[in-house]
Amino acid sequence: MTSEFSALLKRLRREANLTQEALAERAGVGVRTIRGLETGERADPRVTTVRLLADALGLRPEERERLLSTAVLRTPGGEVPDAESPAEPPVPPAAASAPEPTASGPTASGPTRSPLHEVLADVADQVAQTVAARWRREEEQRQVHDPYPLPVRWRPVAEELTDHWANIRRLPPGSAPAALELGGQLDAIVDVYRRIPSGRLVVLGRSGSGKTILAVRFALDHLKARGHADAVPVIFSIGSWDPTAITLRDWLAAQLRRDHPGLAAPGPGGTNLAEGLVETGRILPVLDGFDEIADGLRRPALEALNATTLPLLLTSRPAEYAAAVAETDVLTSAAAVELTDLTLDDLAAYLPRTTRKARGRSATGWEPVLHALRERPRSQAGANLAAVLTTPLMVTLARAVHSDAPDGDPAALLDTRHFGTPEELEDHLLDNFVTTAYRPRPGSGPLRAWDPERARHWLGYLAQHLNRLDTPDLEWWRLGYGMRRTTRTLVTALVIGLTIALVDGVVGTLFDSVAYQLLDGLVAGLLTGLLFGIAYWFMVAAKDAAVEPSVVRMRIRGGERRTGRNPLRRLMIGALCGLVFGVGYGFVRGVLNGAIAHAPLPFVLAGSIGDGVLYGLMFALAAGPALGLLTLFETPLDIRSALNPISLLRTNGRTVATQLLVWSPVFGVLVGFGSLAVVYPAAAVLGPVAWNLTAALKLGLISGLGGALGYAFSLTSWGQWTVFSRIWLPLTGRLPWSVVAFLEDAYRRGVLRQAGAVYQFRHARLQHHLARGPRAPLRTSDPDGSPRGGPLK
């Protein structure tokens, strides 16, 4: 039976005057695929295929949207989802092309609005609320408005770094375009962006010039004026993108799922909400930090950006962007501006307002500094300051060290004996920022008292960890992934082995003597640690991948929408893993038992094979149903969930705990009673087997507890966090024992910032500085208040 999609595809193909063979060749799909789609034999077409067909047909935006909508609007049961039920949001296509972009972002408005469009618009509204709340909080945390935002201005860049104005203005051939007026300052960034018909803007600026602050202000101001159908500006730290491994759209969707786990909820067509928002143009990417992309990847990154027509705002340092342009081309249809330096008038207006007035006079401690800049600009001290205090980053660091600190004296910046060059002055500010941030603060409320030296050591490890991973994103589930893969595997196996040895030893004493159980616990720990280590290597470490946070929660009661995952697939995977584990465990255990009993080699081999078969069947029949059962209780997370790294960690902790509470007893019972069901029939074939109800009960208890913990530690993100961040890294002195408290405290002190579900250092410059290792911080004043620059004693 033909469907609306089938009829529409056939009509569009005929209007394009194409045969099925010609369309198949243009789209790069099989003729049988085209034939099946037009006859209705192939239901629920892949959205990637639909997108290829739309491109091959050269459809207009409205035709493309209609074709995609008719392809995915039908659920597997043939019903159109109800737009009034937010608990059941359908999902847009994963690879749909966005409508023709405008300067304010694409919209979903048109002559007809489907239920799918309405639901996506509602989801986008929820994301907009979350994004706005997140970045308002970050502005407050960074004291952007205290006492007022530092000026951020820009000017147009050289012509060779921008595209043709005809392309930027979307003019037809033969037009004579004029350049757009793009100058402005921070509070006008949205107005400037909206002057650009292509909706593509590059913001260049040197390190610390305010690119991220501008990106945040752009997102917040854009959200204030956003309409229901407008795109949602979302800031993405593009430095973590590898364009050779994943497409831009897929990476954007993955980042959305990471920061908003509820957007991983599935829907019709095999896609999820994150992919739908990206592919239908409801997300306006604000790509911050093009210069932080790894060396060698900037050219393919720029080429990948040019392969799309997505409206976007991109920030970068000038040199890195210019180098990428020289290798390939400018960002297609993009205008570009460059941030300018702060002026002496800016400093004179801002710095005095960040510190208290001296007693008995209106002048502040910044007067000597401003006087040197104004009256002696060519002196060594004046030249150094003029070179350093030109970016918002360095001005805010100078404020933190010399205004916010009780003993901070700005006149120390004039000490040319210790700060002979601008670089030495910048190092002084970076060094003392951490020391100042961790100074003791009486009555500081939630801030803990950390030793500044130890805090710097731990921050240095985190910075080195990020440099090794070549990313600005501090993800709690990857804190141990700066180590070699073999080291991670050995640590995981060691922790699991010791845990299961403890479980086996404690539980086993309920059934056997302590002496026997100590030996049995050591053997069980050694074997399970080895087998889980092998499984971890092949499933995680060998792929050099991370165990990603779960995007589901467990719901035992209630009628919440399920994730759509297939329990049968989970059952088969669990049965296979249980079979492999059981065969390996049983065989090795049989070899050890035979060796202890000094049995002949043929007898040992026969017994080991028999034990392998028995244990393999036991664990396969238990692991499969237990794992499949979990699927029935999984439900998508709320769209507003995981607003910050710690809430995501806690959400995953609760999910893992609930999974273990369900999986552990079910697995234990199935192993215990399953062993009886396997052993007794097997005895008719293998001969007498030493097994009874007590042995089955013991195996079930130990397997339920040990198997659950082994799975959690090796194959869940919360378990990997526990192994590395709560055990191994603190044990080796690289991080404190209370890692969560340290990270949250560093965030409140302004050393770290939050970017969705991850932390980042306040600035990439601070990250790279801390990664260089400890340096001797400098006092800003003597105990009597006189300025000095000597090292702390």
Tell me, briefly, the overall form.
flat
Strand percentage lies at 5-15%
Fraction of residues in H or I helices? 40-55%
Main pleated-sheet profile: 7 strands, mixed
Helix count? 28
How far apart are the termini?
85 Å
Descriptive report:
The protein has helices at 4-15, 20-27, 31-39, 47-57, 61-72, 115-141, 165-168, 189-194, 211-224, 248-259, 273-279, 298-306, 318-327, 344-350, 367-375, 380-388, 392-404, 422-437, 452-469, 485-508, 514-539, 567-596, 601-631, 645-686, 693-715, 717-731, 739-748, 764-771; strands at 153-156, 184-185, 200-204, 232-237, 283-288, 312-316, 335-339, 552-554, 634-636, 752-755, 758-761. The chain has 28 helices and eleven strands. It is flat, with a radius of gyration of 31 Å. The model is unreliable at 73-113 and 776-793 (pLDDT under 50). α6 (115-141) crosses α9, α10 (248-259) crosses α11 (273-279) and α21 crosses α22.
What distinguishing features does this structure have?
single chain; 793 residues; mainly alpha; 7-stranded mixed β-sheet; 53% helix; flat
